[in-house]
Amino acid sequence: MHSERTTDATGFQVGERHLIRIHDVAFGGEGVGRIGDFVVFVPFVIEGEEVEVELAEVKRQFARGRLVEVRVASSARVEPRCRYFGQCGGCQYQHIAYEEQLRLKRKQVQDLLLRVGRFGGTEVLPVIPCPEPYGYRNRLMVRTQWNKVERRLTIGFLRHDSRLVVDVEECAIAEPVLNAELRKVRLSPPPRGGLKVVLRTMPVGWEVPADSFFQTNRFMLSPLVEAVKKCIRDSGVEHLADIYCGVGFFAIELARELKGFVGIECDQRAIKAARKNAEAHGVANGRFIAGLAEERLPEVLSGLDPAQTALILDPPRVGCDAWVLNQIRAVRPVQVLYVSCNPATMARDLNTLCSGGIYKVMRVQPLDMFPQTQHMECVADVRLQAAGGGAVSGRDSAATCQESDQTGLAKTP
């Protein structure tokens, strides 16, 4: 065992063992410790723990370590429910008590807003917990891989530390019906390795094409809608543009709060489903159009009064195209609601949106859509700023826009 020391990165070797103290858990799930001034990332640890690690990868400025033993455990450490935890890459936090997971995720959002978004002092509300921290996931991507050594097909999920597949018989965070489907796949496996099998339970009351997006946790659908509704009601807007609308979930759920809405989605099948979903839910005060957001957004925004319009941005994990953000900055709807499953790209995009003081992030509401994992959902309430620096509401933004036009501020992209 090497004692703690200060040294250059090149002085460390793969396979060395060190005793380190964990001082943080970064977004992504890895604990952060140091050997002297040299940073070491370690999975499956908790802030405050003292652990023995074996260096698995050494870079110029940091290393990654494999947890060997927890010497001094955190009071928040619990027994993982899943027997594959620590091998399978699907979960990062099963060893952490649920209340501590919520505290940790809130802190990670705060850190990302400051470090990536450059937002100091932005209010991040406590994370809304999931009522079912296990057995919630309604979609699984099952992978197959030929094991040359054992000469058999491995069926399961990718390891946390490689592209190899862990053989998995059940998933602790999946809905029970999906575990039944997983057992069927294992009994009648695909003909060869390298194939993927998608298992999915469809949400009640919604039409969702096989490859179209829908939230993966039905227990958190209502809290997510309520978080967005609260923002809409607070701003007093009358119209909504739902960008990346998918099968129309947000637009349809919010329709009764508004005079009208329009949804944009590039997935043609999702748009057809959105129209059917609107009809099934008795919603007739909006429309759904197919196309890329960057192509259809100018047309959509030109037909809406920005002083009475909120935009919902619910992009993929990679975030928004910069052109879309700049188009929003040019038109200046009074409210933008950024819904994201990746707080890092959210923080980056909010920095672009708020550049120059045009918009301000009022608050961020995290929701634990993905318990036991590094992932989380966030709703950021972003408002147009008045000339004096205060937030504008849908009730008073017409006068503000007129004032901005007279000063030339509204024309600045």
Q: How would you sum up this structure, described in words?
A:
By secondary structure, the protein is an alpha/beta fold. It has three domains: 1-77, Nucleic acid-binding proteins (OB fold (Dihydrolipoamide Acetyltransferase, E2P)); 106-129 and 215-411, Vaccinia Virus protein VP39 (Rossmann fold); 139-200, OB fold (Dihydrolipoamide Acetyltransferase, E2P), CATH 2.40.50. The protein contains nine helices and 17 strands. It has helices at residues 98-115, 176-187, 221-235, 249-254, 268-280, 293-302, 322-331, 343-354, 397-407; strands spanning 17-25, 31-35, 38-42, 50-58, 62-72, 123-124, 139-147, 152-158, 165-167, 196-200, 239-243, 260-265, 286-290, 309-313, 335-340, 359-367, 377-384. The protein has an eight-stranded mixed beta sheet with strand order 6-16-17-15-14-11-12-13, with helices on both faces. A five-stranded mixed β-barrel has the order 1-2-3-5-4. It has a four-stranded antiparallel beta sheet with strand order 9-8-7-10, covered by helices on one side. Helix 6 (293-302) runs parallel beside helix 7 (322-331). Residues 2-9 and 397-413 have low confidence and may be disordered.
